[in-house]
Amino acid sequence: MNLNSLGEFLGSLWTVWALIVFAGIAFWAWRPRNKKRFEKDAQIPLKDDDR
After folding, report:
1. Is the pLDDT of residue 15 over 80?
2. pTM
């Protein structure tokens, strides 16, 4: 295995890893259990900050 083929393999591995991480984050964000939290967090900029 030369250095060029190792680089190609690691590049492919990195792409697969990034896809798995993205899919995991997307799955977590779209779970119905998180909907209430995200709706609450979306209202943060609209709240008055009375200090």
Report:
1. yes
2. 0.65
